[in-house]
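Posting for a labmate who doesn't have an account.
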Amino acid sequence: MLKARMALAATALVLLVFGSVAFWGSTPRDLLNLAIVLVTPPLIFWLIVRPTKATKAAQRKAAE
């Protein structure tokens, strides 16, 4: 559920930024750089915080 919310929020933010910047006469390269800057921190955070396969397996085993 959290992943879905994060993905939805990130998508909305990216679309909002692209929509706003498109009217400022920015080049596609500027938009690409902006997308990289906006997407990288949440992606790095998700890669660090997400549960590993071993953790998921341990949780499944504990639930049984």
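Reply:
Got it, the structure tokens are right above this. The helical segments are 2-22, 28-49, 53-63.
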